[in-house]
Amino acid sequence: MGTDLLVELWRDEHGVIRELVQFGLDEVGGACIIRERNSLDALDGDANEGDMVIARFGDPEDARDFLRDEGFEPL
What we know:
By secondary structure, this protein is α+β, with helices and mostly antiparallel strands. It is built from two helices and five strands, in the order βββαβαβ. Strands 4-3-2-1-5 form a five-stranded antiparallel sheet. The longest helix is centred in the C-terminal third of the chain and has 10 residues, at 60-69. It is globular and about 35 Å long. The termini are far apart.
């Protein structure tokens, strides 16, 4: 039994990368979050730190619109 998970990478003009993570794919898309890696937290090598949830959405198209409005483009 696997977990359906889709991750899209998005980057802004400053090189900041955010991930759109879609959970439980279904016919209407599925719930998703936008997360960003906090490199300062990740520097100490703790794999459990470093990701920050920016927003939660019930529809991936809403999440994509949010990212575009924030100046991000898909990689």
